[in-house]
């Protein structure tokens, strides 16, 4: 089958920079999916994305769908012909529905008899006919929250579309796309090359744009060029290092077709402002990269990326310096003004700010969190007074001028202002650490005071919102309770804190007077324990391991984690599958014979067979050995030791009849099995693990 390269390009007004990469990926995936569903063979697929264009190139695209054999079964042969061998109405009706005569039909022999069948070959559609449909389908499925119309067009897209390319080899596919007649011409840079450019074939696409149009169409190439250019400029001009945030780099890449890094300066007096405020101002508002010296401290420099090669770059730099000066002046003014008032004097300002309509104001929340943080601090060996103080001050920076202007600085500015007020160092740091971890993989609080406040703040929100029946539902999670749960679990586990979720939630519950739901604490604990599933899946630990531990509902996260790690290690042992199967068998037997009513006291005088005597002796020995391990939380060593029970357990089931006729003997054997199972249940329900066979 013949092949050619294919190219589609959509030329638009400037696309939203934060969405460009997502739109490009989705456009490409949509076309790939369409080709696969259509059964058209193709080679490498390449994406292109720039501020004013989305494009996809498909290499070695077959010129048509492959022909497809078609087989349609009709009536049974017995029903298709009468006794004289003439076609019946069933046969003629089937043939007529296919537009053929009965003599064009074959027969198909099967185990259930012979059938009339129609066989033909359905010819594949030409690629040039299919591609416009596939492109339109992919565009329609793009993740665009709000589409717009322009001019007199009824077409809708994220931005107005001005031109389109649809090329198969050197042939233009003449079918409208987004209401436009496609061609083989693109457009270059808005200023360097404001004219149409012919693209002879798909393979010429990015070459034409780069050499003639001053456009780097490949997003990844453009991104890497910006990274290298910014880094080199910082090293060359200042002997420093440009700090390149990956999200900012993506955004700058999406803003530029022909990127040129330029370095500007700002007044050194602005360095008295906390570096985070300067960085926020430069990155968020101006899309600048900041520069640090060899000591890691911020320098009075910034790097901007211009979207053109200026004949007078000094003018471009001066313009950017002029723009950043009032921004930094605002930050300096806010910082100076904020420091004139102590944080503790701002506590009253939290009273009018609603946290949640039924749960009260930020002041109410602060009072609750302070009471809870005090108890947590005491439980983890920290200073309760410092935790209580930090929690009362925790939200006060939200009413400062700096945070009202730069909301991403909440907590960060609180730490600076608390230090300025002369607060204890742990209190100051806790004002920032209360928000840690802010996202998956983020750093955790380094101080115990910070841990206490971070946990208390999240637990208060969880208990409060569940208590008024406003848990997360589906994709709705306005208070980020899923993230809050994972944050609490991470802090407790990774900082190895001896905290129990049930206790924490009950403490939090005591601080509320407005909760309407019953057993809120237990409901929240169940919700949080469920979050462990995804936590371990990300670590490559199977759901069955999580479920085995979850079945025992340990409510101390550190303990839960140790059990999971122990069961995961146990699962790798050669004895694991057989013991899991044995536990499943034991569980079924005990459930049928009375479940919880069965004790675990074994009478040695009632042991008759060698298999049960051996198992009883081994269980006794293991109990003496592993119970101290359980007390210390050394679950891994305990399970490793219990793995030695595989052989006596197998022998027991091979040689011993559990359901003996003698009631006493039978109950004694059930007690032995119950004792065996309860040893494993001290860690997890391993009957839920995969079994042999």
Structural overview:
InterPro entries: DALR_anticod-bd, Gly-tRNA-synth_bsu, Gly-tRNA-synth_heterodimer. The structure is a single chain. The protein is an alpha+beta fold and about 700 residues long. It is about 50% helix and about 15% strand. It folds into five domains: about 5-65 and about 125-210, Alpha-Beta Plaits, CATH 3.30.70; about 70-120, no CATH class; about 220-340, no CATH class; about 350-540, Orthogonal Bundle (Hypothetical protein af1432), CATH 1.10.3210; about 565-690, Orthogonal Bundle (Isoleucyl-tRNA Synthetase, Domain 1), CATH 1.10.730.10. A five-stranded antiparallel beta sheet has the order 2-3-1-7-8. The chain has a four-stranded antiparallel beta sheet with strand order 11-13-14-12, sandwiched between helices. Helix 8 packs across helix 9 (about 315-340).
Strand order of the largest sheet: 2-3-1-7-8
- What is the CA-CA span between the terminal residues? 48 Å
Q: Tell me the CATH topology of the largest domain.
A: Hypothetical protein af1432
Largest sheet: 5 strands, antiparallel
Catalytic activity: tRNA(Gly) + glycine + ATP = glycyl-tRNA(Gly) + AMP + diphosphate
Organism: Marinobacter santoriniensis NKSG1
Subunit structure: Tetramer of two alpha and two beta subunits.
Family: Belongs to the class-II aminoacyl-tRNA synthetase family.
């Amino acid at each position: 089958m013949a092949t050619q390269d294919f190219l589609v390009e959509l030329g638009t007004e400037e696309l939203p920079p934060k969405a460009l990469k997502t739109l490009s990926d989705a456009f490409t995936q949509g076309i790939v999916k369409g080709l696969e569903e259509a059964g058209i063979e193709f080679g490498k697929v390449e994406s292109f994305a720039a501020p004013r264009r989305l494009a996809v190139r498909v290499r070695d695209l077959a010129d048509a769908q492959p022909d497809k054999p078609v087989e349609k079964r009709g009536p049974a042969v017995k029903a298709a012909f009468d006794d004289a061998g003439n076609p019946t109405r069933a046969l003629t009706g089937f043939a007529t529905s296919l537009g053929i005569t009965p003599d064009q039909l074959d027969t198909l022999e099967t185990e259930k008899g012979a059938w009339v069948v129609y066989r033909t070959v359905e010819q594949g559609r030409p690629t040039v006919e299919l591609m416009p449909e596939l492109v339109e389908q992919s565009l329609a499925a793009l993740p665009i929250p709000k589409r717009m119309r322009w001019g007199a067009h009824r077409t809708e897209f994220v931005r107005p579309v001005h031109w389109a390319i649809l090329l198969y080899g050197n042939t233009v596919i003449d079918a409208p796309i987004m209401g436009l007649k496609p061609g083989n011409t693109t457009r270059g840079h808005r200023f360097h090359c404001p004219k149409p450019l012919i693209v002879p074939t798909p393979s010429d696409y990015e070459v034409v744009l780069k050499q003639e149009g001053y456009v780097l169409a490949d997003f990844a190439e453009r991104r890497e060029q910006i990274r290298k250019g910014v880094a080199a400029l910082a090293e060359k001009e200042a002997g420093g290092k440009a700090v390149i945030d990956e999200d900012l780099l993506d955004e700058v890449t999406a803003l530029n077709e022909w990127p040129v890094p330029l370095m500007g300066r700002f007044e050194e007096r602005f360095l008295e402002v906390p570096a985070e405020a300067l960085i926020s101002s430069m990155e968020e508002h101006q899309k600048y990269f900041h520069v640090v010296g060899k000591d890691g401290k911020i320098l009075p420099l910034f790097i901007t990326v211009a979207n053109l090669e200026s004949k007078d770059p000094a003018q471009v730099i001066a313009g950017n310096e002029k723009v950043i000066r009032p921004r930094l002046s605002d930050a300096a003014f806010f910082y100076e003004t904020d420091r004139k008032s102590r944080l503790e004097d701002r506590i009253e300002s939290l009273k009018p700010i609603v946290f949640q309509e039924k749960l009260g104001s930020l002041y109410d929340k602060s009072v609750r969190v302070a009471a809870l943080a005090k108890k947590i601090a005491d439980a983890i060996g920290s200073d309760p007074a410092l935790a209580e103080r930090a929690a009362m001050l925790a939200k006060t920076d939200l009413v400062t001028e700096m945070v009202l202007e730069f909301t991403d600085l909440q907590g960060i500015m609180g730490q600076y202002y608390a230090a300025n007020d002369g607060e204890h160092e742990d209190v100051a740091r806790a004002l920032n650490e209360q928000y840690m971890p802010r996202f998956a993989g983020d750093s955790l609080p380094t101080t115990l005071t910070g841990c206490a406040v971070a946990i208390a703040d999240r637990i208060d929100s969880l208990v409060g919102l569940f208590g008024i029946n406003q848990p997360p539902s589906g994709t709705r999670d306005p208070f980020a309770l899923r993230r809050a749960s994972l944050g609490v679990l991470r802090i407790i586990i990774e900082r190895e804190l001896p905290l129990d979720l049930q206790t924490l939630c009950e403490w939090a519950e005591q601080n509320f007077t407005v909760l309407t739901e019953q057993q809120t604490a237990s409901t929240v604990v169940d919700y949080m324990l469920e979050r462990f599933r995804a936590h371990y899946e990300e670590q490559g630990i199977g759901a069955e391991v999580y479920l085995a531990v979850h079945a025992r509902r340990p409510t101390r996260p550190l303990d839960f984690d140790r059990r999971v790690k122990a069961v995961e290690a146990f699962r790798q042992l050669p004895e694991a599958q057989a013991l899991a199967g044995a536990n499943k068998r034991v569980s079924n037997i005990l459930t049928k014979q009375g479940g919880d009513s069965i004790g675990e006291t074994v009478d040695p005088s009632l042991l008759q067979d060698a298999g049960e005597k051996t198992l009883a002796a081994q269980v006794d020995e293991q109990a003496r050995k592993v119970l101290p391990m359980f007390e210390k939380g050394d679950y891994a060593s305990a399970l490793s030791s219990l793995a030695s029970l595989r052989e006596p357990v197998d022998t027991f089931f091979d040689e011993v009849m559990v359901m003996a006729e003698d009631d006493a003997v039978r109950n004694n054997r059930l007690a032995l099995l119950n004792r065996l199972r309860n040893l494993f249940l001290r860690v997890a329900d391993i009957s839920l693990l995969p079994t042999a066979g």
